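Hi P.,

Sorry for the delay on this. The queue was packed all week, but I finally got your sequence through. Input first:
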Amino acid sequence: MLKSYAAIYQKGHLNWLDDIPPQDNMKVIVTFVEAIPQLQAPLFNAQKILQQAWNCLEKKQTIQQIDADIAKMRSEWE
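Then the structure:
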């Protein structure tokens, strides 16, 4: 069975974005999706992301509100 894992290829290494493959020494197929522009600032501020995540738990939101929050966070990263 094929399973996909997201990563950023940088300086010859894969930096996993989510789950890490459970095994070593596996045959892989690599597909490059898009180039990521060089960032001037750190990739993310962990404290800010955690605060936003916890705030989402405290109030009930619709799917549209959650999608809008995610879009806003993504635009801040770009």
